[in-house]
Amino acid sequence: MFAFRKLCALSVVAGGAMIATASTSMAQGAPSIGEPTNVTVTVDHYNGTVKVDWDAPTGGTVDPERYAISFALDDVGTDPAEIVMDHGVTTGNVGDAGALDTEYTLTADVIEDNGVVHGWFSVTVRSDNDTEGVYSNETDFVSVEIINMPDVVDNQAYERDDATGDLTFSWDASSDGFIDPAYYRIVWGNNPTGVDGGTAQITSTSYTVDYEEVGDGTWFFHIYACGPTGDCHIGEPMEIAVSEGTPQTTELPATGSSNGLVIYVLLLLTGGGLLALSARHRPRGHA
User: Which domains are assigned to the chain?
Assistant: First the structure.
């Protein structure tokens, strides 16, 4: 819709009469606002958030006063034509601090749809100017996958049993991701990304890996935090030199040694049975 402004030009004719002549000015367009540009979407599986980022529009005759973000969560593989943006948030109201921010972070509780926080996540962004009552078109939607896995574990550590060579790992569960862990695994390889062995599912936050399962060598161990569908978040590698343990032995002092301990053994054999075993300390220098 266009508005036209009428201008009146005054002229003087013979006899001093004033005549007004109407003319029409050039057309003036209604207020318009441009779409946001360069929309990006970043999933953070460590903290369970999705960050939407964009640039302010460069077109239009009025500036945005705020932005509206629409989003949808669908199954991976959903036909784009079937995606419906049925959820939305805004950067604020006119004049609010942050209303003109060009990024927005969505948390897991906002994204959740019928108890689900994973799948194909799609986003569009729109420029709003409520004062003029004009709104841009939605941007083309950008889609990313939210994987059904938790954050990595916290405070991972291990202790070696010197007698057996076994390794006992411990860690803390993290609830910072989109979901809580369903189970864990410990996996090892001869390089930081290799997989040469691993445990079955672990439901506690500690586990002992026997030396015999691994063997001598330098190994890289990872603790996996896994979701219910088997998607796992891999923790930082722990480089460990694994070797066989040394069993502890106890030696008795020899008879006549400097500590003066003499062991007397009284064996009373009755029917081939061992009946008694006794020991006595004999102080040095005494009979």
Answer: 37-146 (2.60.40.10), 154-242 (2.60.40.10)
